[in-house]
C-alpha cells in the first residue's frame, strides 16, 4: 500500500494556526503522511489543496456558526470561527466531488452534516427536553472513557470496530440533530444522542462525535477507526 497523504484541518488562533499533536501521531502511526491544511480564502488554491491529498481529516474545535444552517444563535452557543467554517465548507465541496475518504471528528462531524443539509443542536443540555442526558463533556484533560456508544450492525462503523458497544472519549455540548440526506445514523449513546453518521453515497465519509485520536494508543476500536481511514486513503 502506498503511503497516503492525509490532509488535516487546523485550529485558527489569534495570530497562528495550530493542531493537537495527537492527530499527527495517530496518522503517522498508521503510515499515513500528515499534511496540515492552513486556512486560505482563494477557492482555486483550496481545490489545489484537496487535489494534493488522498483523504481529509476534519478536526474538532469551536462551535459551527448557526447561520450555516439558518438558525439564530442560541444563548449557550460557544465561540465560532466563521472563517474556518467557510474554508472547511469548500474543502468538503472538493473532497466529496473527488470522492476521497473523509473523517470528521466532533466539530468535523457537525460540518459534514450541515454541509449536506442537516442541522445540529447548539446546546444539547438546554435544547433536548424530556431526556435524561448523560455527561458528554469532561471537566479535565485526562484520558478516560466517558460513556458507551452503541453501534448499528448494519453500518460501516460496525464493520470497522466489529463490536456493538464500545467506550469512547467525548467532549461536546453540541450534536447532530436532523441528519443530512444521504447519511444515516451509525451509532448512538443510551440517551439517544447521535454519535456517528456515515454517507450512503460515498465509500468512506464518516462523522464521529467521539475522539478516537485520544485513545488510539490504548484502545483497539480507536486504532481500527484510524487504520481503516488511512487504508481507505491508500486504495
UniProtKB/TrEMBL annotation:
CDD domains assigned: GATase1_2
GO CC aspect terms: cytosol
GO molecular function: hydrolase activity, acting on carbon-nitrogen (but not peptide) bonds, in linear amides; transferase activity
Sequence intervals crossing the membrane: none
Keyword tags: Glutamine amidotransferase, Transferase
Highest rank taxon of the organism: Bacteria
Tagged with keyword Transferase: yes
Designated name of the protein: Putative glutamine amidotransferase
